[in-house]
Amino acid sequence: MNRILLLFSLFIFSLGAYGQVYKIGKPAPDFVLNDSEGIEHSLSQYRGKYVVLEWTNFECIFVKKFYRSYKMTDLQEEFTERGVIWLTICSSAPGLEGSYGEEALNELLEEIEGYQTAYLLDETGEIAEKYMVQVTPQAYIIDPGGNLIYAGGMDDKPSTIPLHTKTATNFVEVVLNAVLNGDDPPFSETKSYGCGIKR
User: Does residue 180 fall inside a structural domain?
Assistant: First the structure.
């Protein structure tokens, strides 16, 4: 019995060791990260707007599906034009897959021609831990009050084929269209799929 209690206590401690973690309907964990040009961004500075957090790794084949089909950049363009803040976050540790030097990264971002508000670097993985991110791509949506209203995958077709984005139900698109039209999100959590975070 004592052994079980000890293990349970260690488990609870390990959950708390990373600080605040997300919970649907509650305030999203705040953070401060630098973008690809060294400019600091905080989640709290975007209070009053809908915010998308898109976890990425441009070397991940599942991420490539969304960018090669232009689905991700089309979503970024559409919703940033409608006033949504779109923050793309990379939590790859330096030297691991998905991590680039500043010059190479900015060249890649220019090549991709994304419409995200900013590309943020979470090299320690601390923010990924707060949001319990397991894979890329993975998405979160935060309402103007700072509360998390969606967490999960990008769509319902766990494949690597770009053409499948044309027929998939894109969860981020569905939720954003609903809330921007004044409706409640039709769902708040879905199963994500992709490549593991490179910590």
Answer: yes
Domain count, the chain: 1
Q: Which domain holds residue 125?
A: 22-196
Q: 41: helix, coil or strand?
A: strand
What CATH number should be reported for the domain holding residue 143? 3.40.30.10
Are 21 and 29 within 8 A, CB to CB? yes
- Give me 188's structure tokens: 């708040």
Note if the pTM is more than 0.85: yes
Tens of pLDDT, residue by residue over 101-126, are: 888 998 999 999 999 999 999 999 99
The answer to whether the beta carbons of residues 36 and 102 sit under 8 Å apart is yes
pLDDT of residue 20: 52
In sequence order, which residues have a C-beta less than 8 Å from that of residue 111 and are 6 or more positions away?
Answer: none
Tens-place pLDDT, residues 50-97: 999 999 999 999 999 999 999 999 999 999 999 999 999 999 999 999
Span 136-156, average pLDDT: 98
Bond into 137 cis (ω within 30) = yes
Alpha carbon separation from 75 to 26, 39, 58, 167 (Å, rounded)? 25, 24, 17, 15
Residues 193 and 171: their CA atoms lie apart, in Å, by 13
Tell me whether residue 110 is in a domain. Answer: yes
